[in-house]
Amino acid sequence: MGDDQKFPAYLRSQLDRHRWSPADLSRASGLSASLISRWLHGETTPGVENARAVARAITRPLLEVLVAAGQLTPDEAGQKANHVDLSSLTDDDLLAEVRRRLHSADPAPTRADVVSDPGDFVEGPPRQQLRKTRRKG
């Protein structure tokens, strides 16, 4: 992922984590919706003061937001680059990431794609014979 898309991806994952729209982040942070939209489209990234407002709103460390925004390197922030200790994530964080990945992936097959005729899995006489038997009995 290019550096120009790092912050938009980070911000989208945080919106997913909170189940927020950009408007929700705007209200929670006190920042304009148009500014948040520019961040999500990779047009610009937040400076320190706006990163602080975002960090407070999404309840994440300021250094994490600054690194995601490219204002600091992971070394400058004392963070390890590209390593996430999964045990440190909350269940909600993990579920938000799974939702994000599933949402962006190819659609899952439907039951109709997998099972052409549910009667195919019934042992015994074919479905039409079962119907005839039930009517007689």
Largest sheet: none
Name the shape in a single word.
Answer: globular
Overall structural class, as computed from helix and strand content, comes to: mainly alpha
CATH H-level homologous superfamily name: lambda repressor-like DNA-binding domains
Element order, helices and strands? HHHHHHHHH
Low-confidence stretches: none
How many domains?
1
Percent in strands: under 5%
**CATH fold naming:** 434 Repressor (Amino-terminal Domain)
Q: Please write the CATH class name.
A: Mainly Alpha
Provide a count of the helices.
9
Oligomer state of the chains in this structure: single chain
What is the first-to-last residue Cα distance? 66 Å
The number of E-state strands comes to: 0
From the alpha-carbon coordinates, what is the Rg to the nearest angstrom?
24 Å
Q: What share of the residues lie within helices?
A: 55-70%
Q: Mean of residue pLDDT?
A: 79
What is the CATH architecture term? Orthogonal Bundle
Domain HTH cro/C1-type: 11-65
Protein name: Helix-turn-helix transcriptional regulator
Organism: Prauserella endophytica
Region (Disordered): 102-137
Describe this structure in words.
- With 137 residues, the chain is mostly helical.
- It has one domain (3-104): 434 Repressor (Amino-terminal Domain) (Orthogonal Bundle), CATH 1.10.260.40.
- The protein contains nine helices and no strands.
- α1 packs across α7.
- It is globular.
- The termini are far apart.
- The model has no long low-confidence stretch (mean pLDDT 79).
